Amino acid sequence: MARALHLALRAALLSACAPPTGDAATPEEAARYLEDRAFRRETLEAALWRPDLPYSRSLLSSYGLPDGGWDRLPVQASRTAPFTRADADVLARGEALALDDAREIAVPSAPEVTGDPAGPAREPDPGADPAEATWRALGATVFDRLPMRGDAWLDWLAARPALWNDAGLSVDAVGRVRGLVRFADARGRVRVGLTCAGCHAGDGVPGRGDRRLNLGRARALYAAARGLDATALDAWGPGRVDVTDTDSDDPTAIPDLFHVGTAGWLNHSGVVRVVGRATLAIRFETQFVQGHLMQTRPERRLMWALASYVASLGIEAPPAPAPPPAFTARCAGCHDPARAYGGDLVAAEDLGVDAAVARDPERGTGHYKIPSLRGVSDNAPYLHDGAAPTLDALLAAGHPSGEAIPPAERAALLAFLNAL
User: Do 280 and 381 share a domain, yes or no?
Assistant: First the structure.
C-alpha cells in the first residue's frame, strides 16, 4: 500500500504541472493555427517540453520557421480513392494504378462551409456547435481517406493479397482494404497510402487501435523478399509498431485515440505536451510530412478538421459504478475519474514494466503516459508494449508497481474495470 501511495504522490506532482488539454477549441484558435505561423511555432515549442531530444530537435529545425523549412513544401493533393482487391490485380500484372474514380477531400474556406459535395463520411454531430460539427464531419473524411504516409513496403504488400491476412489487413465485402487508399505522390506517381483508419479503427470502431494489424510482419516479409534480416521486425507481433527512427527496436502497442481531448500528453512516453487543440493539428501535420519523406505537406484545414474529429472520439459508456476501496487506494491517484480515468505521466522507474521505450534515445522522456480506462475491458493487450494479455494477468502481476494485490481486492478491481 505504501508503494501505491508513493505512486499517487508522484502522479499528483506531475498533474500540478499538467498542460491544458485539447478537448475544446475556439474559432480564434482555429484561425491562428490556420493563418499565423508564429502561433504554430510557439505551440510547437510549448508542446516539446524536452527540446533536447532528437525527435524534438528534428521538428524544431524544420517546422514553423520564419523562412524555409517544411512550410515551403508543396501542399499534397487530397484526391484519393479506396484501394481494392481489383487494384491489387492491376499491380500484380505490373500495371500502374489509376485515379480515374478518385474524389477530392473538399476543404471549406470557412468553418461554417460544409465540405465535400458528395457528402462527408459521417453526418455532422447535431449536438455540437455548427462550426465544430462541420470540422468534425470533415475530419471523419480525413481520418478515412487521407494517406498519412506512403512506403515502398506498403506498395509491395498491396500487390500481394495472399499475404494480407498475415499482415492483419481487413477487407470488406466489396474488396476494399480498410485504411489503404490510392493517391498521387509529390512526383505524380499513383501509389498506395495508409490512412489513420488503417491503424486506429480496430473492429471497425474509429479510434480503436487495431490489435490484429501486424505491420512488423508486413515489413518483415518485404525485407525478406529483398534478402535482408527481418528477425527483429517479425518479433513485433500484432498490434505493435516501432515509430521511432533509431537503431534500437522499441515496438509499442498501437494506441487507442479515445478521449485524446482530455489527455495532457501524446505518445507512450509523453514526449508531446498538449497545449490546446492546435497541438493535435501540429502533431498530425508533422506526422504527415515525415510519413511522406519531407517531400510534401498537408492542407492545414484538413489537419484542423482531423484534430477536431479525433478530439471528439471516446467510449460511450453508462455511468461508472462506485469504485471499490482498492481502486481509490491503488489506482485513482493516477487514473483520474474526472479525466475518463486517465492522467498525466508516471516515472518509468516507478512502474514494474519494461522501461526501454521511456528511455528511447530519440523520444524517451523517462516517463510513461497514463491512459484512459474507459472501455478498458475491450482493449487487450495492455501496457505500452502489450506485455499483459488480459486485465487479470495485469492485476495478478501487481500493476502498477509489482506489489502483490490480495485476491479479494483484485477480484473487486477486475469487476470494476470490466464495468467502465
Answer: no
Torsional sign, CA 41, 44, 45, 51: negative
Q: What is the pLDDT of residues 237-294, one digit of tens each?
A: 999 998 776 667 789 999 999 988 788 899 999 999 999 999 999 999 999 999 999 9
Residue 132 inside a domain? The answer is yes
Residues 175 and 293 in one domain: yes
What residues does 241 pair with on adjacent strands?
A: 252
My answer on whether 84 and 117 are in the same domain is yes
CB 307 within 8 A of CB 33: no
Amino acid, res. 49? W
Whether the predicted pLDDT of 206 surpasses 60: yes
354 with 394, same domain? yes
Which amino acid is residue 239, in one-letter code?
A: G
**Residue 326 identity:** A
Average pLDDT value for the chain: 88
Query: What DSSP string runs through 291-359?
Result: HTTTS-B--HHHHHHHHHHHHH-----PPPPPPPHHHHHHTTTTSBGGGTTB-SEEEGGGSSS--TTTT
Q: Which residue range(s) make up the domain with 383?
A: 2-17+317-419
Total domains in the chain come to 2
Domain end call among 261, 286, 312: 312
Q: Which whole-number Å values give the CA distances from 386 to 18, 240, 381, in the listed order?
A: 26, 8, 5
Residue that is last in its domain, among 261, 281, 312: 312
pLDDT score, position 261: 78
Amino acid at 218: A
Cα-to-chain-centroid distance, residue 419: 25
Identify the pLDDT of residue 7. Answer: 43
**Contact at 8 Å (CB) between 105 and 119?**
no
Cell of 86: 481489383
Angle subtended at Cα 361 by Cα 360 and Cα 367, rounded to the nearest 5 degrees: 45
- State the Cα–Cα distance between residues 273 and 18, nearest whole angstrom: 8
Quick one: 156 and 211 in the same domain? yes
Q: Do 333 and 296 share a structural domain?
A: no
Domain-embedded: residue 56: no
